[in-house]
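From the methods appendix. Each design record in this collection lists the discretized structure first, followed by the designed amino acid sequence. Records were kept in a plain field format so they could be parsed without special tools. The example shown here is representative of the layout used throughout.

RECORD:
C-ALPHA CELLS (314 positions):
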C-alpha cells in the first residue's frame, strides 16, 4: 500500500518483489511512502478504505506506526478487517513495548547533535538549549539528553521550575563551569505560558497541533532572570531521518518476522511488541490509546549517576 492510509483510501497499491526489498534494511523512512491520513476521521472514508481492502483482495493488513496509525488499525479491526500491528515511532511512547523501531536511531542523532552543541556552548561560555521531539512523553529527551551529556533535562512528565533551572546555571558558573547545555522536550509546558507551545493552532487529521517554540520561550526566561547569553536550537525533523542504527535494523527484522508468524497463525488484532529480549504479541486495544510515560526510576538513575537535573515531581 503506497502512502499509508491515503493509499488505502484511493486504492493505491503495488506488488513488492524480492528485488524491491533486498536492500531496504539500511534505508531510513519507507520506500512505500506515508501520510497523516486518518481513515477513521469520517464514517464515509472508513467505509471506502474497507471496500478498497476487499477490492485489492488483501488477506490481512499489517500496519506499521505509532498510536495514531495503530489506533486507526484498531477501528478497522473492529469492523472485521484482519490486522497485525508493528510499533514504529521515535517517541517510544506505545504501551507494552520496551522499544519501537526508530527510537534508537533518533537517540543517536540527538546525542550527536548535543555533542556538537557542547562545543559551541563551551567555547562561547553560554547557555545552549536543544528542543527535542516528544509531545506527551520525554523518552527522546531524557535518553538522548543522557547520551549527549545535557546538564539539564526537561520533559513533559515533570513540571518545569524555571527558578531551579536558573539556580543550576548560576551554580555551574560559580563552580568554574561557565556553560550549560539544556535538553527540553517540545511538549514541555512553561509556567509563564500555561499550555503547549505550538507553531500553529491548526490540527492534523488525528487532532494534533504542530508543536514548536518552547526552547525560544525558555531562552527568553533564562536571559531575563540570569543575564546569561542564551541560544536555542530546534533539532526538528533531522531526528526522524537518516540511516537506521544497528539495533533498529535488527529490531525491524525481528518484529517483521513475528508479524508474519502471526499472519500464518491467523492471529489477528495483535501488535508485536518488545518485552526484554523477547518479541511477543499484545492485544491492539491494550497497546493504543494510552501514552507510556517515562518512569520515575529513570529520573532517579539520572540524578544518582550523572547529577543531571530533572524537576521534582509534584
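DESIGN:
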Amino acid at each position: 500500500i503506497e502512502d499509508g492510509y491515503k493509499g488505502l483510501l484511493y486504492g493505491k497499491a503495488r506488488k513488492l518483489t524480492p528485488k524491491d526489498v533486498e536492500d531496504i534494511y539500511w534505508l531510513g523512512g519507507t520506500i512505500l511512502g506515508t501520510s497523516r491520513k486518518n481513515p477513521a476521521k469520517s464514517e464515509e472514508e472508513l467505509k471506502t478504505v474497507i471496500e478498497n481492502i476487499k477490492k485489492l483482495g488483501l488477506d490481512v493488513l499489517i500496519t506499521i506506526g505509532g498510536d495514531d496509525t495503530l489506533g486507526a488499525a484498531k477501528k478497522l479491526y473492529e469492523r472485521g478487517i484482519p490486522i497485525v500491528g508493528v510499533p514504529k515511532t521515535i517517541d517510544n511512547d506505545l504501551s507494552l513495548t520496551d522499544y519501537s523501531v526508530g527510537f534508537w536511531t533518533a537517540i543517536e542523532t540527538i546525542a550527536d547533535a548535543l555533542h556538537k552543541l557542547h562545543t559551541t556552548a563551551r567555547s562561547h561560555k553560554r547557555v545552549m538549549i536543544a528542543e527535542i521531539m516528544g509531545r506527551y512523553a520525554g523518552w527522546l529527551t531524557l535518553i538522548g539528553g543522557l547520551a549527549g551529556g545535557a546538564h539539564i533535562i526537561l520533559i513533559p512528565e515533570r513540571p518545569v521550575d524555571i527558578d531551579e533551572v536558573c539556580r543550576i546555571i548560576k551554580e555551574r558558573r560559580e563552580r568554574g563551569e561557565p556553560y550549560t547545555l539544556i535538553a527540553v522536550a517540545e511538549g514541555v509546558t512553561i509556567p509563564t505560558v500555561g499550555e503547549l507551545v505550538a507553531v500553529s493552532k491548526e490540527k492534523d487529521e488525528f487532532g494534533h497541533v504542530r508543536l514548536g517554540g518552547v526552547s525560544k520561550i525558555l531562552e527568553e526566561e533564562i536571559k531575563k532572570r540570569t543575564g546569561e547569553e542564551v541560544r536555542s536550537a530546534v533539532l526538528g525533523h533531522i531526528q526522524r531521518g537518516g540511516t537506521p542504527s544497528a539495533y533498529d535494523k535488527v529490531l525491524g527484522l525481528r518484529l517483521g518476522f513475528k508479524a508474519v508468524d502471526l499472519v500464518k497463525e491467523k492471529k489477528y488484532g495483535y501488535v508485536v511488541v518488545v518485552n526484554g529480549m523477547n518479541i511477543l504479541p499484545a492485544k491492539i486495544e491494550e497497546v493504543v490509546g494510552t501514552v507510556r510515560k517515562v518512569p520515575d526510576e529513570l529520573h532517579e538513575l539520572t540524578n544518582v549517576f550523572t547529577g543531571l537535573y530533572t524537576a521534582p515531581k509534584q
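APPENDIX NOTE: The CA atoms of residues 84 and 273 lie 11 Å apart.
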